[in-house]
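@channel sequence for tomorrow's demo:
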Amino acid sequence: MTRGENGRGSGPERQCTSAVLMIRPATFYSNPETIGTNPFQHAVSAPRANTLAAAQAEFDAAATALSDAGIEVVVAEADPTADTPDALFPNNWFSTHSDGRVALYPMAVPNRRRERRLDLLRGIAAQRGLHIRSVVDLSGLEEQGSFVEGTGSLILDRPHRLAYACRSARTHDAAVEAFCEAFGYRSVLFDAHDETGRAIYHTNVMMAVGAELAVLASSLVAPGAGLRRVFDALESSGKVLLDLSAEQVSDFAGNILFLEGAAGPVVAISRRALASLSRAQRLLLEQHARPVVCAVETIEHLGGGGIRCMLAELFLPYA
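structure tokens (generated this afternoon):
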């Protein structure tokens, strides 16, 4: 890979990268601090050693599948002393950008705040010859009770500088706008609820944006100005829309990530999510990216997050 490729150089930021960071869990169980706002998450009575072993096996298989597709997968170990059951979802606490900046995000619950490890990011950058120019630390917003949990809360259209965000207990307007002001994005804020009326807790369970294709469960977006903003932004940025049902969202069909593989665009998607798509939806998806299928059912069921949540994109330029 040469300097400047795959959204990691000094030129305009590309939508998809070919490199991701994954954090291998040292503990894994249904997080009691987050289950109240995450209906995708389920508590089980199995021994934690068993759930950890299952999650680690799924993690390792997913990392291998992505690597086989030509994605540069950087695997780091979670801190075993921190007791962070959601550490394998690193996209919530940081994001990287092609201008060399790193964003650190305000997290809604205390045990997720322990996941932030700037030293880990600096070590990975030094080891791989990547340049961190500066750090934009938004975590102080926690003191104001204002949260935006990384690319769980924010769906970034990087070339068009759009930040889609669904309001929830973990995604607040003020924190979204703080990110947008710091990084030069325009916010596209909206409200969305599941079929029981609960707010969608993270935008990335119902929406994903690739270079050409956007995935969205438009029926969950509250009608009115917010929905018009979303559709206008997608249209103005030239996206083809793959619309999901509420049931498909519950199967993690929105929790996918478009990446640049060795032989062209790929999309990381879980086995459960892919199985939920209709034949027409799958054909549309495959017109834009080759699916890399990951079986992460334990992680989805207990953690309430899917394969997209497990992948933190690396856009940093080479030093």
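heads up for whoever presents: The CA atoms of residues 30 and 85 lie 7 Å apart.
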